[in-house]
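Reminder: ligand-aware prediction takes two inputs, not one.
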Amino acid sequence: MNYLAVLGRQPEISLAELESLFDEVEQKSREIAFFKTELGIVPSLDRLGGSLKLARKLEKNISPEEYLKSLPEGKITLGLSDYTHAKYSSRDIKNISQNGIKIKKALKESGRSLRLLPNTTPVISTAAAHHNGLGRSPRKVELIKYQNDWFVSLGAQNITAYKERDQARPMRDAKVGMLPPKLAQILINLCGNLDQNSTVLDPFCGTGVVLQEALLMGYNVYGTDKDERMVEYTKKNLAWLSEKHQLNQEIMVEQGDATTHKWKQPIGAVASEIYLGPPMSTPPADIKLKTVKQECGAVLTDFLKNLKAEISPDTPITLAIPAWRRLDGHFERLKTVDEIEKLGYNVINKSRDGLLYARENQVVAREIIVLRKK
Ligand SMILES: C[S@@+](CC[C@H](N)C(=O)[O-])C[C@H]1O[C@@H](n2cnc3c(N)ncnc32)[C@H](O)[C@@H]1O
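Here is what comes back for the chain with S-adenosylmethionine:
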């Protein structure tokens, strides 16, 4: 089956996530990628952190009008998007609007009523698609055009659910940083297609964001943290989530220093945001950066040395590690590929430039590294 993804704010990260899960991923433009899945597998947008919309290709020879006429009886809500031109002109808006009018007329003639969302740009925004529930029920439809192909949306990113998971959980802590749930999903997905009964380990579990997302994806979870308070926070957050979503996978959380801890087996994958050092609001002076880099570097080195004895060579490992914005705008990385490989790991994503997750003006960014034990 052929699919289209609308890529997020950092397309390289969105693409890496798609590539780790699906086949024949092909970037078509800055924001559009095509990919395939095996027969019978329908990808779920709610498990992807890096894509804004997913859509499946309309079968050959079926026109948008025919597709809409085949939907169950009742009024249809339709949004039309054309992602062909990243830079659009007023003509593109006119074209898509005229397309909409033509479709509405054809449907009316066949006795079906349709509410057409207005196009102020050639594409329906992710927020508008989400708030109108497009792709989430049979008669709420977004049809997406890319060049000569039409796709039917499977939904837009559920901004409301992310916000709720992030803000409604009982225990939060601004000091250990706020790992966005989307980034947590990306870290887990970069581990590849895991068996459904796998256990995802987070050895720096903090308030449990990675584990929360892993639970929602159906995995068993195992978290450890050096700080007893964080262990309690994670336990409470995971218990809240499990009850709210009636999940019944295994949850294990215990206190442990990631540089020395011996974890219980089996470990299916390691996904973690490691210690990032202190929060910073302005680029650090050289002397401060040197100290923080040493401190975080020692944690990463000792953790990776310790982890080696605990996992097998095929255990996927994805880590978010700190990188610091300098005054000149460049990012100072924690370690080079060579330094990491000398610790007995292969860095799978050697060209790491794209996998730097940073909001505008954020000083402490996260670099994503994907590793396998040698
Ligand atoms: C950036 S936070 C991780 C946030 C977490 N990924 C989440 O989902 O909330 C880093 C965590 O690492 C913990 N930590 C720092 N050094 C550690 C070590 N040597 N072993 C285990 N945990 C450590 C801190 O207590 C903190 O909770």
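The mean pLDDT is 94. Residues 176-177, 179, 203-210, 225-227, 230, 257-259, 273, 275-276, 299 surround S-adenosylmethionine (CB under 6 Å). We will return to this case in the review session.
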